[in-house]
Amino acid sequence: MIEIQKLQIRLNERVLVDIAFHINSSLALIGQSGSGKSLSIKALLGMLPKSMKCTLKYKSDFELIAGESIGFVPQNPFTALSPLTKIKKQFFVSQERIEELFGEVGLDLELLERFPPELSGGQLQRVVIAMALEKRPKLLLLDEPTTALDPHTKELILSLLRELQKKEGFLILFVTHDILSAKELCEDICVIKNGTLIENGKMHEVIESPKEDYTKILIEANFANRNFRK
């Protein structure tokens, strides 16, 4: 478990984000565009613009270090890799470890000799997931990782992430506006609006009985059929 006791992001005197949460196993941070969820993930990765100031206090049995204890899967696999560099040259671990990772994400080793534009979206996302797991992270940050994928490939990637978590034991923070995908992957949910958490709890409880109007709007925007709650 990791407890984020305070995550505050400021631009000059303006507070953009001020939240606290804990991750027991898998947590979805849900909100509309501009709610502060992407800023939060950038803060955890140490990727905020220099103009912004961040206060981060947390309690955990590991230190938050991007590329070491933190793995990151970005939103768009098509822009995450250099298109002019072979896949094998974009890893920073041994060949043995690369082959192990490819086995874990279900990719053929012959793809290592290809360039990113030669792979499908699903294959590229598996490559990016393999890269995020290079150093066996304790925490995996997912920034809308299924947005650029078709529905079938999306389900395959979510299933893969569930399997990998069971095997590797890492924590998941899934930042998204896609409640349906979050429901498939995460046990808990936090809803963020204007940089503030307005609702949180067990995923099934919040989806079945949302307390805030904002949460209800997000749910209805994701699901045309209300029977999804059953």
Please tag this protein with its features:
alpha/beta, 3-stranded antiparallel beta sheet, 9 strands, single chain, 230 residues, Rossmann fold, 6-stranded mixed beta sheet, 8 helices
Describe the structure.
- The structure is a single chain.
- By secondary structure, the protein is an alpha/beta fold.
- It has a single domain, classed as Rossmann fold.
- The chain is built from 8 helices and 9 strands.
- The protein has a 6-stranded mixed beta sheet, with helices on both faces.
- The radius of gyration is 18 Å and the shape is globular.
- The protein starts with a strand and ends in an 8-residue tail after the last helix.
Number of helices: 8
Average pLDDT over all residues? 93
Instruction: Examine the coordinates and then state which fold CATH places here, giving the name of the CATH topology.
Output: Rossmann fold
**What is the level 1 CATH name?**
Alpha Beta
What percent strand?
25-35%
Name of the CATH architecture: 3-Layer(aba) Sandwich
**Radius of gyration from the alpha-carbon trace, in angstroms:** 18 Å
Largest sheet: 6 strands, mixed
CATH-level-4 superfamily name:
P-loop containing nucleotide triphosphate hydrolases
Number of strands: 9
Q: Which ranges are low-confidence, i.e. pLDDT below 50, for 5 or more consecutive residues?
A: 225-230
Total number of distinct structural domains? 1
What's the helical proportion of residues?
25-40%
Strand order across the biggest sheet?
5-6-7-3-8-9
Q: In sequence order, what are the helices and strands, one letter per element?
A: EEEHEEHHHEHEHEEHH
Distance N to C terminus: 29 Å
Q: Looking at the structure, what is the overall shape?
A: globular
In terms of structural class, how would the helical and strand content be classed?
alpha/beta
